[in-house]
Design goal:
Number of strands: 11
Distance between the termini: 47 Å
Strand content: 35-45%
Radius of gyration: 16 Å
Largest sheet: 8 strands, antiparallel
Structural class: alpha+beta
Order of helices and strands: HEEEEEEHEEEEHE
Strand order of the largest sheet: 1-4-5-6-10-9-8-7
Helix content: 10-25%
Number of helices: 3
Protein backbone atom coordinates (compact mmCIF):
# COMPACT_ATOMS: atom_id res chain seq x y z
CA UNK A 1 0.00 0.00 0.00
CA UNK A 2 1.47 3.36 -1.01
CA UNK A 3 1.92 6.23 1.40
CA UNK A 4 -0.99 8.31 0.14
CA UNK A 5 -3.45 5.43 0.56
CA UNK A 6 -2.19 4.88 4.10
CA UNK A 7 -2.90 8.54 4.81
CA UNK A 8 -6.34 8.14 3.26
CA UNK A 9 -7.25 5.27 5.57
CA UNK A 10 -6.00 7.25 8.54
CA UNK A 11 -8.16 10.18 7.42
CA UNK A 12 -11.12 7.82 7.23
CA UNK A 13 -10.64 6.75 10.83
CA UNK A 14 -10.37 10.35 11.95
CA UNK A 15 -13.53 11.30 10.09
CA UNK A 16 -15.50 8.47 11.67
CA UNK A 17 -14.28 9.34 15.16
CA UNK A 18 -15.10 13.00 14.61
CA UNK A 19 -18.72 12.13 13.86
CA UNK A 20 -19.13 10.68 17.32
CA UNK A 21 -17.19 13.35 19.19
CA UNK A 22 -18.53 16.66 17.89
CA UNK A 23 -21.38 18.06 19.93
CA UNK A 24 -24.16 19.82 18.02
CA UNK A 25 -22.55 19.59 14.59
CA UNK A 26 -21.02 23.07 14.65
CA UNK A 27 -17.80 23.75 12.77
CA UNK A 28 -14.86 24.18 15.10
CA UNK A 29 -13.69 22.49 18.27
CA UNK A 30 -10.52 20.49 18.66
CA UNK A 31 -10.84 18.16 15.67
CA UNK A 32 -9.97 18.68 12.01
CA UNK A 33 -13.48 17.34 11.38
CA UNK A 34 -16.95 18.39 12.46
CA UNK A 35 -20.30 16.77 11.84
CA UNK A 36 -22.74 18.18 9.28
CA UNK A 37 -26.18 17.02 10.30
CA UNK A 38 -29.16 16.28 8.04
CA UNK A 39 -30.60 19.77 7.93
CA UNK A 40 -30.19 22.93 5.88
CA UNK A 41 -26.78 24.49 6.52
CA UNK A 42 -24.89 27.51 5.26
CA UNK A 43 -21.62 26.82 3.45
CA UNK A 44 -18.53 28.77 2.45
CA UNK A 45 -19.03 32.48 3.07
CA UNK A 46 -22.65 31.77 4.15
CA UNK A 47 -24.08 33.08 0.86
CA UNK A 48 -25.22 29.55 -0.09
CA UNK A 49 -27.25 26.99 1.84
CA UNK A 50 -27.66 23.26 1.12
CA UNK A 51 -29.41 20.26 2.69
CA UNK A 52 -27.37 17.02 2.77
CA UNK A 53 -29.38 13.76 2.63
CA UNK A 54 -27.20 12.12 5.31
CA UNK A 55 -24.50 13.25 7.74
CA UNK A 56 -21.18 14.40 6.26
CA UNK A 57 -18.05 15.83 7.85
CA UNK A 58 -16.58 19.26 7.34
CA UNK A 59 -12.80 19.11 7.26
CA UNK A 60 -9.87 21.42 6.97
CA UNK A 61 -8.94 21.98 3.32
CA UNK A 62 -6.40 19.87 1.46
CA UNK A 63 -6.66 20.83 -2.22
CA UNK A 64 -8.29 24.21 -1.77
CA UNK A 65 -6.60 26.65 0.56
CA UNK A 66 -8.37 27.92 3.64
CA UNK A 67 -10.19 30.89 2.16
CA UNK A 68 -13.59 32.02 3.35
CA UNK A 69 -15.37 31.38 0.05
CA UNK A 70 -14.50 27.66 0.06
CA UNK A 71 -15.68 24.80 2.29
CA UNK A 72 -14.86 21.07 2.11
CA UNK A 73 -16.81 17.99 3.22
CA UNK A 74 -16.04 14.26 3.22
CA UNK A 75 -17.69 10.95 4.12
CA UNK A 76 -14.76 8.54 4.24
CA UNK A 77 -11.71 10.77 4.39
CA UNK A 78 -10.71 13.55 1.97
CA UNK A 79 -8.35 11.39 -0.09
CA UNK A 80 -11.18 8.94 -0.82
CA UNK A 81 -14.10 11.30 -1.37
CA UNK A 82 -14.82 14.98 -0.99
CA UNK A 83 -17.42 17.62 -1.77
CA UNK A 84 -16.32 21.24 -2.03
CA UNK A 85 -18.30 24.47 -2.15
CA UNK A 86 -17.06 27.67 -3.78
CA UNK A 87 -19.38 30.50 -2.79
CA UNK A 88 -19.34 34.07 -4.03
CA UNK A 89 -15.74 34.05 -5.30
CA UNK A 90 -15.21 37.56 -6.64
CA UNK A 91 -13.52 38.85 -9.76
CA UNK A 92 -9.75 38.88 -9.38
CA UNK A 93 -9.70 36.31 -6.57
CA UNK A 94 -8.15 32.85 -6.61
CA UNK A 95 -9.39 29.44 -5.51
CA UNK A 96 -6.19 29.05 -3.50
CA UNK A 97 -3.59 31.18 -1.81
CA UNK A 98 -0.46 31.32 -3.94
CA UNK A 99 2.69 33.39 -4.10
CA UNK A 100 3.02 35.73 -7.05
CA UNK A 101 6.57 34.48 -7.48
CA UNK A 102 5.51 30.82 -7.82
CA UNK A 103 6.63 29.32 -11.14
CA UNK A 104 3.25 27.63 -11.65
CA UNK A 105 0.08 29.61 -11.10
CA UNK A 106 -3.60 28.67 -10.93
CA UNK A 107 -5.45 31.34 -12.95
CA UNK A 108 -7.45 33.84 -10.97
CA UNK A 109 -11.20 34.02 -11.49
CA UNK A 110 -12.59 36.65 -13.84
CA UNK A 111 -16.28 37.48 -13.83
CA UNK A 112 -16.47 37.27 -17.63
CA UNK A 113 -15.02 33.75 -17.80
CA UNK A 114 -16.86 31.25 -19.98
CA UNK A 115 -17.56 27.66 -18.78
CA UNK A 116 -14.58 26.32 -20.82
CA UNK A 117 -12.32 28.89 -19.17
CA UNK A 118 -13.60 27.95 -15.70
CA UNK A 119 -13.05 24.29 -16.57
CA UNK A 120 -9.46 25.12 -17.58
CA UNK A 121 -8.98 26.94 -14.26
CA UNK A 122 -10.15 23.84 -12.38
CA UNK A 123 -7.83 21.61 -14.42
CA UNK A 124 -4.95 23.93 -13.59
CA UNK A 125 -5.85 23.68 -9.89
CA UNK A 126 -5.54 19.90 -10.01
CA UNK A 127 -2.30 19.92 -11.99
CA UNK A 128 -0.56 22.69 -10.00
CA UNK A 129 -1.83 22.05 -6.49
CA UNK A 130 -3.39 18.57 -6.60
CA UNK A 131 -0.46 16.72 -8.14
CA UNK A 132 -2.43 15.37 -11.10
CA UNK A 133 -0.15 13.74 -13.68
CA UNK A 134 -3.07 13.17 -16.07
CA UNK A 135 -6.33 15.13 -16.28
CA UNK A 136 -9.10 14.31 -18.75
CA UNK A 137 -12.26 16.31 -19.38
CA UNK A 138 -15.05 13.79 -19.95
CA UNK A 139 -17.80 16.29 -20.75
CA UNK A 140 -18.73 19.94 -20.39
CA UNK A 141 -22.37 20.82 -20.89
CA UNK A 142 -25.02 23.40 -19.92
CA UNK A 143 -26.95 22.71 -16.74
CA UNK A 144 -29.40 24.89 -14.76
CA UNK A 145 -28.05 25.87 -11.35
CA UNK A 146 -29.33 28.39 -8.80
CA UNK A 147 -31.93 29.62 -11.24
CA UNK A 148 -29.37 30.46 -13.94
CA UNK A 149 -27.88 28.88 -17.05
CA UNK A 150 -24.98 27.13 -15.38
CA UNK A 151 -22.74 24.27 -16.47
CA UNK A 152 -21.65 20.76 -15.54
CA UNK A 153 -18.07 19.55 -15.88
CA UNK A 154 -17.22 15.84 -15.62
CA UNK A 155 -13.57 14.82 -15.45
CA UNK A 156 -11.08 12.16 -14.39
CA UNK A 157 -7.55 12.54 -13.07
CA UNK A 158 -4.61 10.35 -12.14
CA UNK A 159 -2.51 11.58 -9.25
CA UNK A 160 1.03 10.72 -8.23
CA UNK A 161 -0.31 8.04 -5.89
CA UNK A 162 -1.40 6.08 -9.03
CA UNK A 163 -5.07 6.28 -8.05
CA UNK A 164 -7.62 7.37 -10.63
CA UNK A 165 -10.31 9.75 -9.38
CA UNK A 166 -13.51 11.05 -10.92
CA UNK A 167 -15.08 14.43 -10.45
CA UNK A 168 -18.17 16.45 -11.24
CA UNK A 169 -18.59 20.22 -10.94
CA UNK A 170 -21.86 22.11 -11.20
CA UNK A 171 -21.42 25.86 -11.29
CA UNK A 172 -22.52 29.28 -12.43
CA UNK A 173 -21.57 32.96 -12.26
CA UNK A 174 -24.12 35.25 -10.55
CA UNK A 175 -23.60 39.01 -10.32
CA UNK A 176 -19.97 38.51 -11.28
CA UNK A 177 -19.31 35.93 -8.51
CA UNK A 178 -18.48 32.25 -8.93
CA UNK A 179 -20.54 29.50 -7.31
CA UNK A 180 -19.43 25.86 -7.61
CA UNK A 181 -20.27 22.56 -5.97
CA UNK A 182 -17.61 19.95 -6.71
CA UNK A 183 -17.48 16.20 -6.07
CA UNK A 184 -14.12 14.42 -6.32
CA UNK A 185 -13.67 10.78 -5.29
CA UNK A 186 -11.74 7.62 -6.01
CA UNK A 187 -13.03 6.21 -9.29
CA UNK A 188 -13.40 2.75 -7.83
CA UNK A 189 -16.56 2.66 -5.66
CA UNK A 190 -16.39 6.00 -3.91
CA UNK A 191 -17.48 8.27 -6.77
CA UNK A 192 -20.58 6.22 -7.56
CA UNK A 193 -21.36 5.83 -3.85
CA UNK A 194 -21.33 9.58 -3.19
CA UNK A 195 -22.80 10.85 -6.46
CA UNK A 196 -26.45 10.57 -5.27
CA UNK A 197 -25.59 12.73 -2.23
CA UNK A 198 -23.90 15.26 -4.48
CA UNK A 199 -26.91 15.48 -6.78
CA UNK A 200 -29.24 15.90 -3.80
CA UNK A 201 -27.07 18.69 -2.41
CA UNK A 202 -26.93 20.46 -5.79
CA UNK A 203 -30.72 20.22 -6.13
CA UNK A 204 -31.14 21.68 -2.63
CA UNK A 205 -28.77 24.63 -3.12
CA UNK A 206 -30.23 28.09 -2.45
CA UNK A 207 -28.70 31.56 -2.55
CA UNK A 208 -29.02 33.61 0.64
CA UNK A 209 -28.34 37.05 -0.87
Amino acid sequence: MNARLKIAFLATALAVSACSSVDGGDYGGYSDYSLVRVRRVNVGDDSLSVAPPRPWNRHRPILFEDIRAVEDWTLNGPLLDGMSFVTGLRDGKSLIRQRRTASQQVPIFRSNMTPPEIAAMIESLYRVRGGAVDFRTVSLQPRPFLGTNGFQLDYEHLDDDELWRRGRVVGTVINGELYLILLDAAKSHYFDATLPDFEAVVASAQLRR
